[in-house]
Amino acid sequence: MTSGNDQRYAQHQPFSGHQAEKNKVIFYSLSSKFVDEKSAQKRSSQKVQEVVYYSLAIGHHLGVIDCLKSRLECPLTGYQQWVSCLPEQGEAYRKLAGVQRFGEINIDSSHTHLLALALRDARPQMNEEQQGWSNQLIALLGQIESDPAMYLMVRRYDA
């Protein structure tokens, strides 16, 4: 039986026989699309491609299943300390702190610039491990900039 809180979140299937570790925050990225992008791009105008991207973005409302792949994992306490390096009144802090409040957040193209700049500017307050997480997240944000259909889903796993 699942608790009411468990039912609020999508259930992510770990790879064969692997359960997500407790007390972690995991960043997932969209890893599969149900569109043949190469052939679609060759024969489609920019406007048609935008419609395809929009359709993928709202696809979960229509029953399309996104395939997500784990890209970055942090221990929960480490994540909280990492986020606390950001200015507390800033939008980047508010966005990333949402993992603690809601258990799950999405990061899309509307967040990339804001988060990348905040992580870059906070580097002096971070330890080496946190700087490594920042580098990984900034690289993922760059991928979102290159592919507007990509997004990150960040989920907290509690004990």
Can you walk through the features of this model?
It is a single chain. It contains six helices and four strands. It is of the alpha+beta class. It has a four-stranded antiparallel β-sheet. The radius of gyration is 17 Å and the shape is globular. The model is unreliable at 1-18 (pLDDT under 50).
The SSE string, one letter per element, is EHHEHHEHHE
Output mean pLDDT.
80
Evaluate the radius of gyration.
Answer: 17 Å
Q: Could you estimate the helical fraction of the residues in percent?
A: 40-55%
Could you tell me the strand content as a percent range? Answer: 15-25%
Number of β-strand runs: 4
Query: In what order do the strands lie side by side in the largest sheet?
Result: 2-1-4-3
Write out key terms for the chains shown.
alpha+beta; 47% helix
Summarize this structure briefly.
The protein has 159 residues and is of the alpha+beta class. Helices cover 47% and strands 18% of the residues.
